[in-house]
Amino acid sequence: MKGLGHVVIGSAVGSLLGAAAFFAVDGLMPSTAEAQSTKMSCRDTHSLYVQNGVKKNRPADVKYFVQVDGDVIRKQYEGFPHIYTSKIVWRDDGYTVATQRNDIGGSGITTTSIAFEDSGTALVTRMFVDPLSRTTSSFFSRCEITR
C-alpha cells in the first residue's frame, strides 16, 4: 500500500509539472491577434472555372493584394474597389487557411490557403464552391511578400 501512495503522489506531481510546462510555452507563443501583419502582391498563374458542368475561360493573370492581419485575410483585386475579408480558421508557422461566405451573391464559400516560402514569397490557392449557381473555381497564385 505504501508503494501505491508514492505512485499517486508522483503522478500528481508529474501532472502538475506537465501542465505548468504547457502553460509556460503557450504563454510565450504569440496569439493570432498579436501576430505580425503580412502584406503581399499576388498574380494568378493558373485557373479553373466550371459553371453548370461547363468549363469557362477566366484570365489566369489577375493581380490582387493580400493582407494577413490578426485573424483575417483581406483581398483586393486590381481595378476592383471591393475588399474581401476571410476569417482565418487555421494557422501555423508556414501555412494559413481562411474561409469566407460569398459577400456579393449571398451563397457559396471561398477557401483561401497560403503557403509561405523561405524566399519571401508565398503560394496561394483560392477555391470557390456555390451549389445554387452550380459554380466551382480554383485559382493558383504566386505572391511577393511586401510586409
Based on secondary structure, the structural category is alpha+beta
Distance between the termini: 63 Å
Q: Major β-sheet, in short?
A: 8 strands, antiparallel, barrel
Count up the helices: 1
Mean pLDDT: 80
Q: Any idea what the shape is?
A: globular
* Series of secondary-structure elements, N-terminal to C-terminal: HEEEEEEEEE
- Backbone CA Rg: 22 Å
What is the number of independent domains? 2
What multimeric state do the chains show?
single chain
State the strand order across the main sheet.
1-3-4-5-6-7-8-9
Low-confidence stretches: 4-34
- State the CATH topology of the largest domain: Porin
- How helical, in percent, are the residues? 10-25%
* CATH class membership of the largest domain: Mainly Beta
Short synopsis of the structure:
By secondary structure, the chain is an alpha+beta fold. It has one helix at 2-28, and strands spanning 38-51, 54-56, 63-69, 72-77, 83-91, 95-101, 109-116, 121-130, 135-145. The chain folds into two domains: 1-30; 32-145, Beta Barrel (Porin), CATH 2.40.160.
Description:
By secondary structure, the chain is an alpha+beta fold. It folds into two domains: 1-30; 32-145, Porin. It is built from one helix and nine strands; from the N terminus they run H-E-E-E-E-E-E-E-E-E. Strands 1-3-4-5-6-7-8-9 form an eight-stranded antiparallel β-barrel. A hairpin with a 2-residue loop joins strand 1 (38-51) and strand 2 (54-56). Mean pLDDT is 80; it is low at 4-34.
